[in-house]
Amino acid sequence: MRPPLETDVVVVGGGVTGMAVLRDLALRGVRAVLVERFDLGTGTSGRWHGLLHSGARYAVRDQESARECIEENTVLRRIAPHTIEDIGGLFVLLPGDDEGYAGQFVEGCRASGIPTEELTAAEARRREPLLVPGVKLAFAVPDGGIDSWALLRSMAADAEARGCQVLVRHPMVGVERDGDRITAVRVHDRVAGEDRLIGCQWVVNAAGAWAGEVGRMAGVPIRMIAGKGVMVVMASRYVRGVVNACRKPADGDIIVPQHEVAILGTTSVQVDSPDDIAVAPADVDRMVDMCAQMVPSIAAGRVLRAFAGSRPLYQPESADGGSGGGDTREVSRTFTVLDHASRDGLANMLSIVGGKLTTCRQMAEALVDRLAERMGVTEPCRTATEALPGADHGPHRLAAPLAAVERDAAYGELVCECELVTRSQVRAAVGAGLTELEDLRRKLRLGYGPCQAAFCAWRAAGMLAEGSGEPRRGAPVEREGSGEPLAGLERFLEERWRGQQATTWGDQARQALLNHAIYRGIFDLRDAGRPDEAAAAGRAPTEPGEGDPTTRAGDELVGESNGRTSSKAGG
Amino acid sequence: MLHVEQTADRCIKCNVCNTVCPVSAVTDLFPGPKYEGPQGQRFRAGIDTGDSPDRSLDYCSGCGLCTQACPEGVLIAEINQVARARLVSAKGGLNLRDKLVSRPSLMGRLARPVAPLANLAMAAPPVRLAVEKAIGVHRGAAMPRFSGITFRSWARRHRPPADATRTVAYFHGCAAEEFEPEVGAAVVRVLERNRVRVTFPKQACCGLPLVSNGDFDDGRRYANRLVRRLRPAADDPGVIVASSTSCGMTLKAKYRELLGLDDDATRAVAEAVYDVCEYLLELDDEDALDRSFAPMHARAVYHPPCQLMAHGVGTPALDLLAMVPGLVVERSRAGCCGIAGTYGTKVEKYQIAMDVGRTLFDQVAEGRPDFVVCDSETCRWHIAKATGLPVYHPVQVLDRAYSAS
Amino acid sequence: MRADVVVVGAGPAGLAAAVRLAEAGRQVRVIARGNGFTHWGAGAVDVLGRLGGERVERPLEAAARLPAEHPYRLAGEAALRDGLDWFLRFAAAAGLDHAGDPERNRDQVTALGTLRPTCLLPAPAAHPVAAGSGRVAVVNFEGFRDFSAALCAAGLRSAGVDAVAATAPLPAWDHARYFTAVELARAVDDDGFRRRLAPGLAQAAAGAAVAVVPAVLGVSTGHAAWADLERQAGMPLVEAATVPPSIPGLRLFAAYRARLDALGVRWQFGFPAVGVEWDGDRVTAVRSEGASRVLVTRCQEVVLATGGVAGHGIEANRDGTLAEVVAGLPVEGFPDRTAFVGDRFLGEHPLGAAGVRVDAELRPVHASGSPVHPNVRCVGGLLAGHDPTVEGSREGVALATATRVAELLAPAPTPVS
User: CA 20 to 30 Å from C29, out of A158, B214, B273, C232?
Assistant: First the structure.
């Protein structure tokens, strides 16, 4: 094992909360290391609908949340405009909806400080031409769309520039304690295939829906409820801004446009584990049918895929945990900072649980304020005023990628044609250390389009095989190591497939069969049983000590991806 | 309009469209139908004010071969046309050249009083050079000859025979009216030979050049005017025959698809329109076509215009020409002759149009037919100029074969 | 419109059926919504590549042992043999020589460096590439983004082939800014371009016994461009199969189109057939979409070559039901759509095998086994009882069933005026 790292604070969890904490610490001059089991944004931060909340969804029943949202909405627009689509949102009143609710809605928004504008049916339909003709009226609110991976990357870049470290593919596997203090966090380096110790003074548990697992490793009880939500991705955008139903929050009442697609959401069901990401066809049908009430052409539209994520709902010890499978909407969404010193006798760990993505910065501020006080750090929080790297690009505009390709006449450069991802973008990402096609997709949107990576996966695999440069002209080039060059490609294709099983019919069925005819028919690839990371997580033990300690979820993936052998079972 | 854009959803990225695009085949200024159409469309959704991202889109000729080849029903060329309209709107409308070339009836009306002079001028290299410099119509582009008389003036003087068993209305279009009244006359004679009485409802330009160039607002005005005028004929006689395949296609489908006109009148007119060869072949299906053609010992190349293929009736002219004894007809190997309406007349696209047409021109040069046959007028002028051969509408060939019998 | 036989579909089965029917003396009209698997295949003739995931060595022998409802059994071995034989002659006459022996499968190099099992290969793909072939240079053309020499070579190496990656420069040309396989293949058709290309190709492959290249060696001159380039490069050139559009498939499609034109087959392309009319149980017309009206084509016989779910001949609905799109023929659906596809992308997907059940005369049948219409036949991927992707049989089934249908419909036609 390599010599231990030393730092002041270890932050566990590479979602937006953990990264916001890391950035906040960095801006206050604190040394910190963030550890994440997979890639940034593979937990709830990567499995949601992308809504930059105006807070209006909470205006009627949870005005504290609503107020937090609108405040942070404004902050994020200031510090991270480049991660945001400034598209606005509508709350639409449909025939059969309770008009009284509309009144409460307006009042609740006013009380929470959320600006609203009432639109007539005609105005609403001018703004959203595909809105159902029977819409009665609508309220415009400052909803937006936010790209969580872009936000994560920005925050990480900021923190790293100030001396912090981000370690992806380093799941926490244990701690070393000395009395009532944690002295080190033990992590497993998946790429190197060995454990590492990170000596630290403080630990922040920002593992979101997995906070309970981290708590278990640290010896403190944290009861988390995984509130699973299913989301459906339509192949095209349908709407210009967010469209919500103006009624009590329920399943299938929101359509969030994200870049070139629309995400229909969502459900809310308690499940046993946040790694349960399975989607049932009935959920898909429900989303489509419900959202089609607002935008009818969705009913016959092309569904691309569906996915699920778990809300990180904290259940305080004293409350009734509720029965499994129940509707989890009633649990409060405001966040909680747990100081384990007073709560559990563990002197140097804090946990941050609950909350929503829009308020991640605020959550981090609350936690880091508490931590800074304990550490004796006096630097105030500056995260609300310091712009993130990239902010000067301004808000993301839908047409921007097309405009860029047109401006540079870069059609010949395209790797992912659906998402207009260019060779130089892929080369830059590979040069920055990305080696997995799945990571490329999070960073570049590679494989997000209608063909679900059929045509770009193998182009990108080719670029990875060639490294970051082109083979030399004219002369044969030797490439070392045969390894299994197609393993990463096969894994990526399976990962893309995982989201399509409940959504394959019509156009998408034709796409799937064409894709199959290409990879199985032309290329003669057959199923080698390799799981992608998330699927592996769904099957892997999540408690330390269970199973063979030398086998960790996803090891065999990494071992193959760079040609080295990992510490597999028996080795 | 919305429906056309929504067909982008059906794309499975299979690249079939890219294999048939005649423009991307000859120039790398145009990245192909998949890129411009369903792929680009996903980035255009919701853009309705300025800031169109498109540039390469301008090179799409609108030939529609992509839409035909697509097995999934993506209306690719139509998506491009809608995007072009946005591009034009973002630029504040058409430039002077495109405004002019989009109004053939206007140009015809202006030139008619001085037709012989106008024709002389348009054939004179110094004049063409000046026109090219001034407004951007390429000096080498084929120009039709302005006719000194209109087709309608011929029709007014024409005495129909008395033995008709059916009646059709004739949508002659600007081509016959302003430039080729002889084609219109041939249509009338061929129909009358088959005991069809031909009426000439008041009509006007269908607006296709405006629509193709991206001016949907004026296009709609033209469309509504024409539909108003043809509406009665859609009920009685219930058949409207068109001899310009592109104008016929416009009435059949483009008002609905591109301009979003889906009212009863537009639909009624659309359903009543027949391409003249389509109509004649349907007569033959009912055994009502006079097949007494005189032999014509000649060799011809028949080029089906891309807009004819967009009617979805195949190539009825081939079946009709096959009835003329002695006439040997070879089908063009080209999908598009290159002119694509007004596209190939423009200085920045002329060479593309000539390169696209090369397959056909080479086939003609090799095969040395006596003449070429093509249903669409702008194609005829372009092919005639490039090959030096006479180019006829199929009904002109039938008319000749009838009149000699 | 009137026709004698209407063939619906212009994929491998529809094209072969149309040509063979016309050669047999029927008057044929092809109605197709667009292109299909000629453009999406590997550019080879697959007869039977895999059974139960295992490679098949002797496809005709294995075909004889397939279940009775498999299209090969229904069409009969003679039809398959005759179909393959006919294809070899047809292709050769069109300048597209193929190598291979129907009795034995062979390997085809793919752009991922895998060796897929197939039966007949066009000459540009036919030179053997195997462990023990000697050094293989995998050469990409500079700037061609749809081929990775490194990936292909790595794949070949893991199959034991001594493969190295290289790049050959492209001469200056008018598509330097942007080109795909199609533009490059057209450029290679030009002998001046080839003359300037060959030296760089030869140099890139220097020292190798054979060069594997992407399948871009000409598209409108048959195999002539490939043959000429091979001569100039001084070594065998092998085209690797790659993602659509298939350039070898385009060559074949052009050959089919030319033959159809020469036979006077009428071609109505770009609009789908949407229904049929019937009188009693006999179909009397095919209805197809037109620009503003449905077009009715009266006919004596209908051959549906619409290709199953992948070809858009069968619609897979949200609720698990399937519908045959032209004549509403019976198709077995699924209890719900989770049964459409498997858990693993590279596994198997039941939708790929969904199809119309037919009798020994290729007529679609009711559950009772009696034909739905006496004058409707089905060929190719539309047929139930096989998954052309999984078992590697698409072109073979197309040819066998096209041959059988031409046999069945060959007797003198009812006079059509």
Answer: B273
Q: Could you say which residues from 167 to 186 on chain C have a Cβ atom under 8 Å away from some Cβ of chain B? A: 174-180, 182-183, 186
A520 touches chain C (CB under 8 A): yes
- Angle formed by the axes of helices A16-27 and A148-161, nearest 10°: 30
Residue A508's closest CA among A452, A467, A453, A447? A452
| pLDDT score recorded for residue B2 | 62
Lookup: tokens for A131: 């809105």
The answer to which of A288-292, A459-463, C111-115 has the lowest mean pLDDT is A459-463
Which residue shows structure tokens 């190197």? Answer: A192
Q: Is the pTM of this model over 0.90?
A: yes
Q: Strand order in A181-189's β-sheet?
A: A5-6, A194-199, A181-189, A172-178
Count CB pairs under 8 A between chains A and B.
Answer: 84
Which CATH number does C5-95+251-409 carry? 3.50.50.60
pLDDT digits (tens, 9 = 90+) for A341-353: 999 999 999 999 9
Helices marked H in B194-292 — which ranges?
208-213, 216-235, 245-249, 255-257, 264-272, 276-285
ipTM of the complex: 0.97
DSSP string, A468-487: TSPPPBSS-B-----S-TTH
pLDDT for the residue B50: 57
Residue boundaries of the structural domains of chain A: 85-143+225-318, 399-471+480-561
Domain chopping of chain B, boundaries: 2-90, 289-403
pLDDT for position B319 = 95
* Average pLDDT over every residue of A515-519: 97
Architecture of domain B2-90: Orthogonal Bundle (1.10)
Asked if the C-beta of A195 comes within 8 angstroms of chain C's C-beta atoms, the answer is: no
Q: How far apart are CA C327 and CA A376, in angstroms?
A: 79
Q: Looking at CA atoms only, how far is residue B115 from chain C in angstroms?
A: 36
At A165, list the tokens. Answer: 């470290």
pLDDT higher than 50, residue A477: no
Q: For residue B274, give every residue at least 6 positions away whose Cβ sits within 8 Å of its Cβ, in sequence order, or none.
A: B168, B239, B240, B241, B242, B248, B282
For domain B289-403, say whether CATH 1.20.120 is its number.
no
Instruction: Say yes or no for a CB contact (<8 Å) between A524 and C336.
Output: no
Give the one of A471, A486, A506 whose C-beta lies nearest to C165's C-beta. Answer: A471
Number of H helices, E strands in chain B: 25, 8
Q: What whole-number percentage of chain B has pLDDT above 90?
A: 83
pLDDT at A256 over 90: yes
- Contact between B19 and C250 (Cβ < 8 Å): yes
pLDDT confidence of residue A180: 94
The fraction of chain B above a pLDDT of 70, given in percent, is 98
pLDDT at residue C384 above 90?
Answer: yes
Q: Could you tell me which chain B residue has the CA closest to the CA of C38?
A: B16
* Option in A260, A409, A451 nearest B43 (CB): A260
Instruction: Say whether pLDDT at C185 is over 90.
Output: yes
CB A492 within 8 A of CB A437: yes
Against chain A, the chains showing at least 3 CB pairs within 8 Å are B, C
Q: Are A235 and A304 in contact (CB under 8 A)?
A: yes
pLDDT at residue number A419: 94
Q: What is d(CA C39, CA C45) in angstroms, rounded to the nearest whole number?
A: 13
Can you read off the two tokens belonging to residue A200?
A: 């630290």
Interface contact flag, B13 A451, Cβ < 8 Å: yes
A 411-430 residues with CB < 8 A to C: 411-415, 423
Query: Which residues in chain C touch residue A470, judged by CB atoms under 8 angstroms apart?
Result: 142, 167
What average pLDDT does chain B have?
94
CATH T-level assignment (fold) for domain A85-143+225-318: D-Amino Acid Oxidase; Chain A, domain 2 (3.30.9)
* Structure letter (DSSP) for residue B339: -
